[in-house]
Amino acid sequence: MSSKPTSEGAGSERPILTTRQGHPVRDNQALRSVGERGPATLENYQFIEKITHFDRERIPERVVHARGTGAHGYFEAYGKIGDEPAARYTRARVLTETGVRTPVFVRFSTVIGGKDSPETARDPRGFAVKLKTVDGNWDLVGNNLKIFFIRDAVKFPDMIHAFKPDPVTNRQEPWRFYDFVSNSPEALHMVTWVKSPWGIPASYREMEGSGVNTYKLVNDEGVAHLVKFHWVPKQGVRNLTAAQAAEIQANDTGHATRDLYEAIERGDFPEWEFCVQLMSDDDHPELDFDPLDDTKRWPEDQFPLLPLGRMVLDRNPDNVFAETEQSAFGTGVLVDGVDFSDDKMLQGRTLSYSDTQRYRVGPNYLQLPINAPQEAARPRTNQRDAQMAYYVDDAGNGGKLDRHINYEPSSMGGLQEAPRPAREYRQWVEGHLGRYQTSRTLDDYRQAGERWRTFEDWERDELVKNLGDDLRQCPEPIALRMVWHFWHCDADYGRRVAEAAGIDLERARALPPLAGKPAPNQHRPVPTYTDGEPEESAREEAPAK
After folding, report:
1. Is 243 helix (H, G, I), strand (E, B) or coil?
2. Which ranges in 195-268 belong to alpha helices (H)?
3. Cα dist. 116→154, 160, 238, 253, 389 in Å?
4. Residue 65 designated active-site
5. How far is residue 531's CA from residue 521's CA, in Å, rounded to a whole number?
6. Per residue in 260-304, pLDDT tens?
7. Is-contact 433 34, C-beta < 8 A?
8. CB-CB contact of 291 with 281 (8 Å)
9. Which of 5-9, 37-41, 205-209 has the lowest mean pLDDT?
10. Cα distances (angstroms) measured from residue 437 to each of 33, 333, 533
11. Which pLDDT belongs to residue 424?
12. Among 304, 318, 314, 326, which residue's Cα sits nearest to residue 370?
């Protein structure tokens, strides 16, 4: 029987959340950023403390994505994005040069379960690609569902804690998952996907992949476009019902690893087409969602998937530990011509992922063959020593004198800066430094409702059954709130979930909106700080220059 919290003490005095330094945490909902859509700033100490501690919570397996498998292969660019030359949008050679097979290593995974958990688990699937280009590594780290549960990285440890086993019962408790989700309406879209058959791909070969976050492509003129990256399987997409997954799990907890390995061994090499969605690099106020919000999909009728290249996996690892388990990915590992956007999940992941690898594998994880760049992009740095260093000289074949100079600049030799591009990309940034709530919240409900209506009948039936089974295990206040959310996504969606969960729909509908959040299917009227203060008042109070 599931362990549930009681309502006792819910309205009583509760302890104050603090940092590990004992400082009161007055805002645990958002990173500080320059304006609502601007970049996060490095002095987000509260976030840095939180995420770096989170990265070190478990050793030695990954905190998330522990259960996985991998394969080697290659990527080939078409030289075009859709019908246009790729160079119009990017100067990245890996995306513009044809006739080149760029080596890749791909690691597929589940997210929440441990290293020996079943691959039939209902969970997003990780889809991490390391492209070893002639200009250095490019890591595209994403999942199979194109979106995520949250849009601000400061909430990532909270989300994973809620989804992981209860620290007391050591079981994944549905009430913990829905308690978090019921207070985070932006998660409704992802929940609708995960609790449908799309939450259990039939195999790694038969699932899509996506970079999830919004990036930028930059061309030789220094012009940027917002971009979403997608992997489309040539094998087609196939998902499982809960009953089908249970039948497989009864006999094989690693069916997806076996399927990928055996397919490659028999020469049935899986292939994906690499596609992009493009958007001009501006605010796009005409859209009901923020294109930097990773809980939203870009509608494909407005922003079509444009083919860019293909990826083939044709070789299994020789040693699973040395290659698959020690492979290390980071969202900050980009090549020239691919750049960051101000997506707040991307900015937080960029610190967290590489920090995790330095902790889990070690500070010299990039010296391991599975992670090291190809020889044409051999690393030469002034970084030195640390645990398990084995390169004698990162500076390469520069002569004996160079080995004395592990700093820059120097008039005596050593490494020097690379030539700068003819035209740099320089983003204009202006705004108040503060913690913001997202203004464009209308699609928190609408995209989930649209997804419900586009599912096939059997997918809707499966989704309703899965949600009903879960909500029957939750305290009534959580179940009522979830039905309220689903009803605001789509009335039929909410009605059917209420019936499956044994919840009184009228009681659920009578709930008030969440405190501090706009009513469903509405935007906030103006940019707003997380304390509820509109940005305009802050601007009016700013001292005159």
Report:
1. helix
2. 242-249, 255-265
3. 28, 18, 23, 8, 30
4. yes
5. 21
6. 999 999 999 999 999 999 999 999 999 999 999 999 999 999 999
7. yes
8. no
9. 5-9
10. 11, 28, 10
11. 87
12. 326
Within 50-99, strands assigned E span: 68-77, 80-81, 84-85
Q: Which residues contact 12 (CB under 8 A, 6 or more apart)?
A: none
Rounded to 5 degrees, φ, ψ at 105 are -130, 130
Q: Taking 60 as the threshold, does the pLDDT of residue 451 lie above it?
A: yes
| Chain mean pLDDT for the chain | 90
Residue 105 contacts residue 370 (beta carbons within 8 Å): yes
- The residue to which tokens 């740099």 are assigned: 424
Identify the pLDDT of residue 1. 47
Q: What is the DSSP string of 436-449?
A: EE-S--THHHHHHH
Residue type, 45: Y
Tokens of 328: 């290390």
For the chain, report the end-to-end CA distance as a whole number of angstroms: 64
Catalytic residue (one of 137, 143, 213, 316) = 143
Q: Which residues of 357-374 are buried (b: 16+ CB within 10 A; e: fewer)?
A: bbbbbbebbbebebbbbe
Residue 297 identity:
R
95-121 tens-digit pLDDT? 999 999 999 999 999 988 888 889 999
CA angle 379, 383, 384 (to 5 degrees): 115
Ranked by mean pLDDT, which of 7-21, 156-170, 414-428 comes out on top? 156-170
User: Does the active-site annotation cover 255?
Assistant: no
The pLDDT of residue 545 is 42
Catalytic residue among 65, 72, 189, 255: 65
Residue 120 corresponds to which amino acid?
T
| Residue among 488, 399, 412, 535 at smallest CA distance from 185 | 488
**pTM greater than 0.85 (yes/no):** yes
